[in-house]
Amino acid sequence: MQLYEGGSGEQAGLKKGDVLKAIDGEDVTEKETSDIASMIRESDKDSVTLTIQRNEETKEIKVEIRDVEIQTVSHEMLDDETGYIRISEFSEVTSNQYKKAFEDLQDKGMKKLVVDLRDNPGGLLTAVCDVLRQILPEG
Asked: Which of 42, 102, 111, 117 falls between 20 and 30 A from 32, CA-CA?
């Protein structure tokens, strides 16, 4: 569905729209996304070989396993007064990334703000609450 900028998948050549078929030869087509992520995270190897379907072609791509801080917040100024922050999901890093984005937009003269949560699948409730504490007034 998406690739994280600078992440192992992007660097290995995965593309948005690739369909994951197998990990190290083990079929994952019937597995939940969380189970697939666990298989990779809990691997004792330095890399995994992903079998993917891209259009009509099947490819094998070797992907290094490493820790990456996922960018869950992106931002920009839409005009001279309007800042825009997109939150793609709520994870451990979202609150801090939101704070940095908000401060950067304020430094650029933001007077109005649009927060975009479209296609956000949710995530950690604590991260949602941490961001809301920054947005909503006390009480």
From this structure: 117
CA 41 – CA 55 distance, rounded (Å): 27
Digit-by-digit pLDDT tens for the chain (139 residues) are 677 777 788 889 999 899 999 999 999 999 998 888 888 888 888 999 999 999 999 999 999 888 777 889 999 999 999 999 999 999 999 999 999 999 999 999 999 999 999 999 999 999 999 999 999 988 7
Rg over CA atoms, the chain: 18
Contact (CB, 8 A) for 81 and 101: no
The strands making up 112-116's β-sheet, listed across from edge to edge, are 73-77, 82-87, 112-116
Handedness of CA 108, 114, 119, 124 (dihedral sign): positive
Under DSSP, is residue 95 helix (H, G, I), strand (E, B) or coil? helix
